[in-house]
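Job type: complex structure
Entries:
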Amino acid sequence: DAMVIQNPRYQVTQFGKPVTLSCSQTLNHNVMYWYQQKSSQAPKLLFHYYDKDFNNEADTPDNFQSRRPNTSFCFLDIRSPGLGDAAMYLCATSRAGRPSYNEQFFGPGTRLTVL
Amino acid sequence: SQELEQSPQSLIVQEGKNLTINCTSSKTLYGLYWYKQKYGEGLIFLMMLQKGGEEKSHEKITAKLDEKKQQSSLHITASQPSHAGIYLCGADGGEWTGANNLFFGTGTRLTVIP
């Protein structure tokens, strides 16, 4: 089945130690998104890739970076994780947007713990 | 910036009861999405509404978007334990970027007691 896969499901890192989260998709969608969801909060969009074009949300900290080497894969890099970065990180994909509003398909998420 | 408020924040119902969750926006909604999330998991798409007055149903779940496109409701008929989870409404950011940038409401946690 076509799907969005995130690895690892659980990641533990130390304060300040760089960490990379991975997302892959078999849907061949143009757009890939990264969301951060803290405990008991709504998911918050960090950035997205439309094909190779990177679009950062205005309030996403510089500590968060992303790479998309090809259509199928997208990575979230946290350069120096702080305790406040502990959260669930959700990857999603969709076909290109307007003029139609397209469903986003979400992966199962990676839960990041920062010690 | 646009905000989405959901009510209630949490809901506990007896199995078999009907329930409604509301999502209210401060601005006109362009593409309103309903998702369900089980604890510690990703989001599962339920329905998407675009037009004022639109209504969609899937199994026992019905979603509506009001004529002014500022409020949506999600109604579950004869709730079952499988309906338990967190329900999130999401809306398109309204600015064309080539992608559907969603911002989400605060969520409604539903518990269904057998």
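Summary: Chain A has no helices and eleven strands. The mean pLDDT of chain A is 92.
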